């Protein structure tokens, strides 16, 4: 009887439509991720937390599932009520800026907002916190960019969300409107780890769908691991 009930429960969970919230939806990976989630019949609601409405998404397939939550500043993540995304399935953080915008601003976007959104996931009882980091992220790195990325990973781990997925993609290809000169040059260097933005987004969706019925999983995906997720799907 226990086995039958467990099987029924598992089936109900697998058939249940999922809900996810995306931070950084206007960036390359976040934008691609929103399109992935809207295009999947496994997701019922896709919320994006933004500072302004994204009108260009009105024509996207699956747009009826899109929920735009506009805030005046991402500093408000700290005070978003727990019941806003109560028991949702995933919080995805794809935020990222350049060190060139200033060290203080970079630290706020690439560290503080990750900690704040992970705390939001924790207090809301969200099943999965999924975050984009960087290859070679290390809290002890001499390079400020990698140091902050490593600190973000470290602090998010300490929060203790139900499931955690950390993505460390290599050099990003096909950013479209989010052009970065260094990556454009690096795309021609053969020995560098590279991956398409669309591949990272697809892997994040696949992973979130797999973890919908899991608890206690902590996974760190390297560039090769991200690609492997897609080949296993």
Written description of the protein model:
It is a single chain. The chain has about 230 residues and is an alpha/beta fold. Helix content is about 40%, strand content about 20%. The chain is built from 7 helices and 9 strands. It has helices at about 1-15, 30-40, 105-125, 145-160, 180-185, 195-210, 225-230; strands at about 20-25, 45-50, 65-70, 90-95, 130, 165, 170-175, 195, 220. The strands form 2 sheets. A 7-stranded parallel β-sheet has the order 3-2-1-4-5-6-9, with helices on both faces. A two-stranded parallel sheet has the order 7-8. The longest helix is centred in the middle third of the chain and has 22 residues, at about 105-125. It is globular, with a radius of gyration of 17 Å. It starts with a helix and ends with a helix. Residues about 1-10 and about 180-190 have low confidence and may be disordered.
List the helices and strands and how they pair.
Blueprint (H helix, E strand, L loop, with lengths): L1 H14 L2 E6 L4 H12 L3 E8 L15 E5 L19 E4 L9 H22 L3 E5 L11 H16 L3 E5 L3 E3 L7 H6 L7 E3 H14 L7 E4 L1 H10 L1
Parallel strand pairs: 1-2, 1-4, 2-3, 4-5, 5-6, 6-9, 7-8
Helix pairs in contact: 2-6, 3-4, 6-7
């Amino acid at each position: 009887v226990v086995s039958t009930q467990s099987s029924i429960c598992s089936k109900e969970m697998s058939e249940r439509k999922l809900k996810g919230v995306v931070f950084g939806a206007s960036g390359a990976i976040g934008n691609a991720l929103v399109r992935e989630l809207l295009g999947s019949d496994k997701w019922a609601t896709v919320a994006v937390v933004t500072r302004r409405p994204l009108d260009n998404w009105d024509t996207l397939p699956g747009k009826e599932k899109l929920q735009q939550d506009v805030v005046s500043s991402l500093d408000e993540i700290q005070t978003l009520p727990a019941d806003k995304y109560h028991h949702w399935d995933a919080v995805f953080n794809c935020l990222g800026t350049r060190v060139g915008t200033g060290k203080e601003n970079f630290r706020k976007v690439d560290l503080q907002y990750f900690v704040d959104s992970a705390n939001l996931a924790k207090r809301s009882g969200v099943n999965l916190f999924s975050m984009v980091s960087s290859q070679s992220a290390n809290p002890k790195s001499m390079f400020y960019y990698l140091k902050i990325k490593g600190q973000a990973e470290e602090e998010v781990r300490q929060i203790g969300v139900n499931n955690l997925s950390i993505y460390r993609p290599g050099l990003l290809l096909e950013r479209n409107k989010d052009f970065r000169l260094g990556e454009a040059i690096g795309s021609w260097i053969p020995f560098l780890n590279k991956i398409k933005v669309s591949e990272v987004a697809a892997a994040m969706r696949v992973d979130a769908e797999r973890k919908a019925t899991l608890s206690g999983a902590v996974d760190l995906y390297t560039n090769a691991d991200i690609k492997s997720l897609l080949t296993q799907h």
